[in-house]
Amino acid sequence: MLTRLLSGDTPRSSLLTALLLIILISLAFAPFLFPGTKSVETAARICIFIVLVASYDLLLGYTGIVSFAHTMFFGIGAYGTALALSTTGPGYGALIWGMAAGAGVAALFALAIGLFSLRVKAIFFAMVTLAVASAFAVLVSQLSWLTGGEDGLNYKIPRELTPAFKLIDEKIFDVRINGKLLAYYLVFFVSVMLFLVMLRIVNSPFGRTLKAVRDNAFRAEAIGYRVVWYRTTATVLSAVMAALAGSLLAIWLRYTGPATTLSLEIMIDILLMVVIGGMGTLYGAVLGATLFILAQTYLQDLMGAASEATSAVPLVSMLVAPERWLLWLGILFILSVYFFPTGIVGRLRAGRG
Amino acid sequence: MNGTAIKPRIERIPLKEQFFQKLPVLLVPLLAVVGLVAIGDPASWLTLTVAGLAMGMMVFIMASGLTVVFGLMDVINFGHGAFVAVGAFVGFTVLAWLAGWTASPSVMLNLAAVLIAILAAMVVTGLLGIAFERVIVMPVYGEHLKQILVTMGGLIVAQQMIYVVWGPDELHLSRPEAFQGALVIGEAAIEKYRLVAVGVGLALFLAMRHVLKYTKVGLLVRAGVENGEMVEALGYRIRRLFLIVFMTGSALAGLGGVMWGLYQETITAHMGSDIMVPVFIVVIIGGLGSVEGCFIGAMLVGLLANYTAFLAPKVALVSTIALMVVILMWRPQGLYPVVKAK
Description:
Transmembrane segments (chain B): 20-39, 45-70, 82-101, 107-136, 148-166, 193-212, 241-263, 275-304, 311-330
Membrane topology (chain B): Multi-pass membrane protein
Strand content of chain A: under 5%
Largest interface: A-B, 43 and 40 residues
Helix content of chain B: over 70%
Keywords (chain B): Amino-acid transport, Cell membrane, Membrane, Transmembrane, Transmembrane helix, Transport
Helix content of chain A: over 70%
Shape of chain A: globular
Protein name (chain B): Branched-chain amino acid ABC transporter permease
Number of strands of chain B: 4
Number of helices of chain A: 18
Oligomer: heterodimer
Strand order of the largest sheet of chain B: 1-4
Pfam family, one (chain B): BPD_transp_2
Number of helices of chain B: 14
Number of domains of chain A: 1
Distance between the termini of chain B: 40 Å
Radius of gyration of chain B: 21 Å
CATH architecture of chain A: Orthogonal Bundle
Strand content of chain B: under 5%
Largest sheet of chain A: 2 strands, antiparallel
C-alpha cells in the first residue's frame, strides 16, 4: 500500500527515510509541535515550495531542461487565484475556477514556449526563458489596473479559512482550532497530493522516457520516441504543477505580488533548492526546500549572532552579516555542483552501498 | 616549376545568395525608416534614434564578450552580468577619487578621469574573468547544464561580494562636466553622452572586426570557433586562447558596466542581472558566437526599445521579446548563425 502510494519509488536509504519521515511528521503536525505564527508560516512555505521545487525538478532533473521561466508559471497560478478572488469576492467557486484558470493559462504558455524553443539547444532555451520570464515580470508590475502593479493584490479568502473563523472554542494542546489551521491543512494536504501525483508521473513509463531523453536525446529519437513531444509535455506538466503551487501560496498569504511570486530571486532560490537537494529525484526537492527555507528563516538569526561576535574584525563581520547569507549559499551551491552533483539524496543513496 | 601549379579556386557565391546572407544588415536602416514614418516628427525621431543607437552600442559592448566566449569556448557565462556590475562599481570608486578632475570644466581632465576609470574597471574585471575561468568554469567545459548552474552560482557570490565591499545601497554615479547636457541640432536635443557612447561602441566594433579578421589571434579564434581540436592539433595551445578570450570578454563587460553606469547615473549590485536580459536577447538575435550579428541585434534592440517607448510605453516592455520571437522564426539560429563543426 505504502509502496503503491509512493509509486514504487521508495527512498532506498535508511537515513534518507528517516529524514523524510521527520520532515513529513513535522509538517503534518507543525501547528501543534511548533506553536507560533512564524513557525507555521515557515511550515506552510516549506509545503508550497516542496511542490514548486519538485515541479521544477521534473524539468531540470528528469528531463534535463534548464528553464528560467518557472516563477512565471508560479506567478500565473498565484495571480489567477488572486484575480478570481478579488473580482468575484471570497467564495469556493472563485477559488476553484481561479486555480483552474491559472493552471490552464500556465499550460498554454508552457505549450507555446515549449513548441517554440525546445528544438534548440539547452543554452538557447535557458536564455529565451530568462528573457520571457523577465518580460512577464515587468509586464505584471506595469499593468497596475489588473495586477495592482508593484503593490500586488490584497483580497479576501473564504471565511472558513481565516483566523476569524472558530471551529471549536477550546484550545487543543494550546492551539486555537480556527480557520488558519484549516488553511494550513488545506495547503499541507494539497501539497502532499500534488507531490504524490508527481511521484506517479516520474515513475511511469512516461517518466522513464523523460530520463532517456535527458541522458541521450539522440538515441531516444532514434529508438522512435518523439523527443520534442516528450519535452513539451514535461514542460506543460511542470508548469501546471507550479501554477497550482502558486495558487496555494495565494490562498495562504491572502496577498499576491511580484516580489512573492515572480522575482528572479525566487527563481534562483528554486534552482539552489533543486541542486542542493539532488537533481533527478523528487525526494531531493523535499530536502532541498526544507533545508533552504529553514536556513532562510533561521540561519539569518544565527549569522546575526556570529556577526556581533566578530564585530571587532572588520571584513569578517561584513561577511557573516545576516543579509549576506546568500553569499554562503552561493558558495555552497557551486561546491555542490562540483562535488555532489547528485545532491544530498544522491549522496545518501550512494552511501548505502 | 612548370607553371602548372594548381591555384586554389575560391568559389564565388552567387550574387543572390550573397544578398540573402547580407540581408540582416538592411534591417537596421529599415527599422529606422519605419520609426520615422511611425513617429512623424523628425526632431523627436532624431533624438530617439541617437538614444536607441547609444543604448544599442552599450548593450553591444556587454554582449560582444559573451558571444565570442560562447562561440569559441561553447561556454555561456550567466555570471557575465556580475562583471558588468563590478566594472560599474570600480569605475565609481575611481571617479570618486578623481572627483576634482571630473568636476573641472576642462574636457581633457574629464576625459582622462573617465579613461582611467574605464581602464581600472577593465583591469579588475579582466583579472576577475581569469579567476572565474580558472576556478569556476574550467571543471565544467562541455557540460552546458553544469555551466549554467555554476556560473549562476558565481553570479550570486559576486553580487553578494559587491554588497560586502560597497554596501547595500545604490550609488549615484555622476557624469563628468563635459558629458553633461545636450547638443541642440535644429529642434532635436541630443545628449552629449549618447554621442560618446555611440562613438565608443562603433570604435569597439571596428576594432573587434579588425582583430578577428586580420590578425593572427583573430584567425586562431575564428578557427577555434570552427574546430577547436584542429587548432590544438596544429600546435596552438587552445586553453591559453580560451583564457585570453575569457579575460577580454570580461574586460569588455567591465567597460560596458562603466558606460552603462554613467548612462543610468545610478548603480546597484543587481544592475548586472537587470541588463543581462537585453544582452541575452541581443546575443540570441545575432546568433550565438557572431560579433556582426551581435552588433546588428544590439542596434535593432536599442532602436526598437526607444521607438516603442515613445509610441506605446506599455508595448515597449515586450517589444524586444517580440523582436526575438520574429527573428527566431525567420532564422532559428539567429541572424548570422555560426557554423560549428562540433
